[in-house]
Design goal:
With 134 residues, the chain is of the alpha+beta class. The protein has helices at 25-33, 38-42, 108-116; strands at residues 6-10, 15-18, 46-55, 61-63, 66-71, 74-81, 84-92, 95-101, 118-122. It starts with 5 loop residues before the first strand and ends in a 12-residue tail after the last strand.
Length: 134
Amino acid sequence: MREIKFRAWDREQYEMSYSDPLDDLECASSWFNSLEDRDIRASGNIELMQYTGLKDKNGKEIYEGDIGHGNRLVSFIIVPILGGLSVLNIRFFGQEHNELIALPTNDAQTAAWLHESEVIGNIYENPELLKDKE
């Protein structure tokens, strides 16, 4: 069974909070409700992201919203899809793509590929990584 974990980005404080491992959605709700500023959460300034259950080649946990490199020519973002998470191809062989490719993270081949990849940041703390390097 996959470990259920979440992290939350506070858009007002520019901080990422990580949950302890959770067993069910009731625990997830409890952790989310315990975030410090309930007014910020209620105003929509908290972005909740789920752990994929996968780790990159350095053992770093891969969450929704993470930006990574498959190799020096391929960059990607983990994005939510109905029923799970998938990979958004943002750069492929130096070309901008920004297209969803059918690589659900629960697929064995995708999981193996992500395990060989490297997480280099996330869309909230490192938005500059989404821009093409000139």
